Amino acid sequence: MSNVFLIMFTAILTENFIFAKFYGICPFLGVSDKPSTALGMGMAVTFVMTMSSAATYAVYHYLLAPFGLEYLKTVAFILVIASLVQFIEMFLQKYVPALYSSLGIYLPLITTNCAVLGAALVNIQNGNSFGDSVLFGFASALGFTMAIVVFAGVRARMQFSEPPKAFKGFPILLIAAGLAAMAFSGFSGMKFN
Amino acid sequence: MDRFLEILSPALVFAALGILMGILLAVAGRVFSIKKDERIEKVAECLPGANCGGCGYAGCAALAEAIVKGEAKTSACSVGGPEAAGKIAEIMGLEAEETVPMLAHVTCAGKCGISKKKFIYSGAADCAAAERLGRGDKVCPDGCIGLGTCVAHCPFEALSIRDGIAYVDETKCRGCGVCVTFCPKNVIKLVPKTSPVRMRCVSTDGGKAVRSYCEAGCIGCKICEKACEVGAVKVVNNVAVIDHSKCVGCGKCAEKCPRGILEVVTEL
User: Fold this and answer.
1) CA-to-CA distance for A152 and A40, rounded, in angstroms?
2) Residue A129: enclosing H or E segment and its boundaries?
3) What does the pLDDT read at residue A3?
4) Chain A contact for B17, CB < 8 A?
5) In percent, how much of chain B has pLDDT > 70?
6) Are the C-beta atoms of B225 and B233 separated by less than 8 Å?
């Protein structure tokens, strides 16, 4: 049980994908202009990352490892994740149309998103078991969702601010993201035994 | 031989993985295929396909879906006009509805030099931005700002800025109404394409105030109202408004107007 808590806490706060590891910055900056779309994106990422963590674990341990092809894991994961997302999209469209209409537009965007791929690779790096892998994928995605939704709130405030001309638009966004990341670095000192 | 295997085995494994994924997706494509209403595609074909959003839906495909579901009228596309409405009604098996083709009309004649300015605006070239800064650079609170927000949003390139106000190229305008939604001054209105007389001012200020800042502003004198024999022109809130359903196009109001802002359309 403490293991579950540890993985959740680490993935969401101390090693937050966006603020500590800088994975998935592109959707983080691209889809965070409204809290509602940010939440949609976060949910889609959560869904895909949990599923792909499971799938890539299987591919790595039952297909790549027996043949000694561990060095090709990145390529294999891209292939598997891309197909998986396509599959999920088709499945949702048929059986869960409500979920499809809310997540549908985000799914193709994250086919081989670096956060999704990153979760799969970190799992292998840490030598996680199957359960831990899925949990880690899920928790990291929750951290991603939290970060993107929080930042969407920051951006909503920023729309009405008047930064100096040189900082208008994207630069001020990056500075705000940097400040948020610095705030999150406060968690990095926490150690659990 | 070992070298050979070293190259061959990854190739084989990846080929197998690729084929497996390919089969999975192909099967999924079959199993999870969804029957879409054929009419959606047919209706979409009748629509102009410009995705202007004038109907209020996300694009032509979204409107087609809404029409087939019965959520939107067959005549919902103002751009396609009666022609498209007729075809769509045929597909849907409904009676064609009467539609009046509309046209965007700039209800302001305050060109450069005619309408006075209160300051020199040098901010972002966007009417909404200028509107927030003291309601624009014109003294007139209702006049066209002329920074071309409508021009930027027009999906048919029918708008341009001439002499400081928006100008509609009537041969290109399809009456989608996108400009109407973007104009912060509400100075662009949709009028029937066949309307013979059109008003060129929306200022609700009193006569004295209008005289002080614009040579082409309505002063609410009601001469047009008296001149009209069919009761189509009414002065409401210090500005003449034409009821296009009543107007017969005699042009008497325009003749009498001391400000010359009732415009008789000669080429119909």
Assistant:
1) 12
2) none
3) 83
4) yes
5) 96
6) yes
Segments forming the whole domain that contains residue A46: 2-187
CA neighbor of B185 nearest in space, from B236, B230, B232, B146: B146
Q: What is the pLDDT of residue B52?
A: 77
A125 within some domain: yes
In a domain, A193, yes or no: no
Whether the CB-CB separation of A123 and A57 falls below 8 Å is answered with: yes
Instruction: Collect all residues of chain B within an 8 Å Cβ-Cβ radius of residue A87.
Output: 24-25, 28
Query: How many contacts, defined by CB atoms under 8 Å, are there between A and B?
Result: 43
**Single pTM value for the model:** 0.57
CA gap B190, B198 in Å, rounded: 11
DSSP B25-88: HHHHHHHT--PPPHHHHHHHHHS------TTSSSSHHHHHHHHHHTSS-TT--TTTHHHHHHHH
Interface contact flag, A87 B34, Cβ < 8 Å: no
Tell me the CATH number for domain B39-92.
Answer: 1.10.15.40
Q: How many whole angstroms separate alpha carbon A16 and alpha carbon A93?
A: 31
Chain-chain contact of B13 with A63 (C-beta, under 8 angstroms): yes
Q: Determine the pLDDT at residue A146.
A: 93
Number of domains composing chain A: 1
| DSSP 3-state of B160 | strand
Cross-chain residue pair A67–B9, CB shorter than 8 Å = yes
For residue A120 the two structure tokens come to 């799969």
| Annotated domain spans of chain B | 39-92, 102-264
Mind listing the pLDDT tens digit of every residue in chain A (193 residues)? Answer: 678 888 888 888 888 889 888 888 888 888 888 888 888 888 888 988 999 999 999 999 998 888 888 888 999 999 988 888 888 888 888 887 777 777 766 777 777 688 889 999 999 998 889 999 999 999 999 999 999 999 999 888 887 778 888 988 889 989 999 998 998 888 877 766 5
pLDDT tens-digit readout, A21-53: 888 888 888 888 888 888 888 888 898 899 999
Q: Class of B102-264 per CATH?
A: alpha beta
| Cβ-defined contact of B17 to A94 (cutoff 8 Å) | no
